[in-house]
Amino acid sequence: QLVESGGGSVQPGGSLRLSCAASGPTHSRHCMGWFRQAPGKEREGVASIRVDGNIRYVDSVKGRFTISKDNAENTLYLQMNSLTPEDTAMYYCAAKDYGFCSDSVGWADYHYRGQGTQVTVS
Predict the structure, then answer these.
(1) Cα–Cα distances in angstroms (integers) from residue 29 to residues 42, 50, 99, 102, in the given order
(2) Radius of gyration of the chain (CA)
(3) What is the C-alpha to C-alpha distance for residues 2 and 9, in angstroms, rounded to an integer?
(4) How far apart are CA 33 and CA 90, in angstroms?
(5) Strand 44-50 relative to strand 112-113: parallel, antiparallel, unpaired?
(6) Which residues pair with residue 112 across a beta bridge?
(7) CA angle 89, 90, 91 (to 5 degrees)
(8) How far is the C-alpha of 55 from the C-alpha of 33, rounded, in Å?
(9) How many CB atoms lie within 10 A of CB 37?
């Protein structure tokens, strides 16, 4: 139900925009989020957006990443600017129908999860 795209290779300082196409309406999803997992590291929440527009970011991406939704297109986005090699990871989108919504919510707490798109910064 969630399909990510937009990953790729970029030089440090560059930008990428990730997309997550949802098969169902994004406007009614209680919470949608982006996660990432670098080799040898645990998956971490990057950003979340609640149905009322409340947005949260992990500290390491604040000021550089922007999460947004296009409800008409049923698509979630993650605009990533000023990328660094530390941002290299597989990026995943997820959605949940109820419960707490924050960048700190774990992957297992989401009800719908995508397969990921690779981002490499070097």
Answers:
(1) 25, 8, 11, 14
(2) 13
(3) 22
(4) 14
(5) unpaired
(6) 95
(7) 105
(8) 9
(9) 15
Asked if the model's pLDDT at residue 28 lies above 80, the reply is no
> Mean pLDDT for the chain?
94
Q: Dig out the tokens for 14 from the structure.
A: 């560059």
Q: What is the pLDDT of residue 27?
A: 66
pLDDT at 10 (0 to 100): 98
61 burial level (CB within 10 Å; 0-12, 13-18, 19+): buried
Kindly state the tokens that stand for 5. Answer: 């795209």
Q: How many CA atoms lie within 13 A of 112 on its CB side?
A: 21
The residue whose two tokens read 């989020």 is 33
Cα separation, 117 vs 78, in Å, equals 12
Tokens of 80: 């990533």
| Amino acid letter, residue 105 | V
Widest CA span in the chain: 38
